[in-house]
Amino acid sequence: MQPLGDRHLDALREVGNIGAGHAATSLSLLLQRPVRITVPTVQVLAFDHVVDAVGGAEDVVVGTYFRIGGDYPGNFFFIIPACSARAVLRAMWTEGDFGDDLQNEMALSALGEIGNILTSAYLISLSDFTHGKVETSVPAVAVDMAQAILEVGMLTADADQCLIVHTGAHIEELDVWCHFLLVPDPDSVLPLLTALGVRGE
Amino acid sequence: MAGQVVHVGMADLKVVHCPDRLRSVGLGSCVGVALWDPQTKVAGLVHIMLPSAEGFTDATRAKFADTGVDWLVEMMQQNGARVERLRAKMAGGAQMFTFAGKNDLLKIGPRNVDACRRALAKWGIPMVGEDVGGSTGRTIELHSEDGRLWVRTVRGGQIVL
What we know:
CATH class of chain B: Alpha Beta
Strand content of chain A: 25-35%
Number of strands of chain B: 10
Helix content of chain B: 10-25%
Distance between the termini of chain A: 14 Å
Number of domains of chain B: 1
Order of helices and strands of chain A: HEEEEHHEEHEEH
Protein name (chain A): CheY-P-specific phosphatase CheC
InterPro entries (chain A): CheC, CheC-like_sf, CheZ_family_phosphatases
CATH topology of chain A: Chemotaxis protein chec
Organism (chain A): Kyrpidia spormannii
Radius of gyration of chain A: 16 Å
Order of helices and strands of chain B: EEEEEHEHEEEE
Largest interface: A-B, 30 and 33 residues
GO molecular function (chain A): hydrolase activity
GO biological process, one term (chain A): chemotaxis
Oligomer: heterodimer
């Protein structure tokens, strides 16, 4: 992958901003609470450090993974730390009948569906913004160490430099954090930048 | 416990001497292959991500089972270990996501395990302990003092191989 200049990073940050903005609107509607988006970070990292974007490598998180196809193949993750995921579920189900167990089938299915809705919102805006085709796989959900979940996004990445567009979202009333991570395949970075009109130096 | 803990990242390889320890955090479908020489107490760990380097231009040898295990054996020898004394343990190779669909990358864990097994068999190195497969992430720590491999999971606590 070629080194990226400020203009490239700004364009990718804008993608993260718009995508996560749409996703946050969906989340806000779903939970009927205000959701604030943090400034997106675009980083080119050695892939051992990708996990730092969402906290510690061994932190337990709920991860929803999508393989992205179309014009910019890559990986997409929607990550909620375990304690935040419980708070989100409690907010959705006042009964709290999932018993705090995130492995519960109902809980996993609900969290997968949230991930699905938000990721669709993010990727539709990516598609609109770049006038490109973006397809997604069915969501895959797991509750485990952050590193073990994000690993699948790194399998085909370059070990030394992995591009991630990371956006955090904060649900103010619940004090809950969640994370959107767009990890384009190395071969997708140029087409994405071209679509954003910032190819070349 | 004396000694340092040396971190082995993804597609990384490290060799240490007694009393240092080697740690890999959050192995999912990746496999940690640990080698230990009981006489010199040289310990080595490689963090394998994919079964084979074939078709990849990626120069990171430690990333692939076929090239990574060979490199680990070479590094062990350079540090005074002898192949005929080496013992192997491994952990990892899970399938993290249940609904993998047609995505083969989500089902790479078992193939990584098989490839590591084959690579070790080629050198005639006996496998003396393993905790592989399933659907859970693992953090592992190899103790050069006695060759023990600690395996920690989020749900299952800790076991020692």
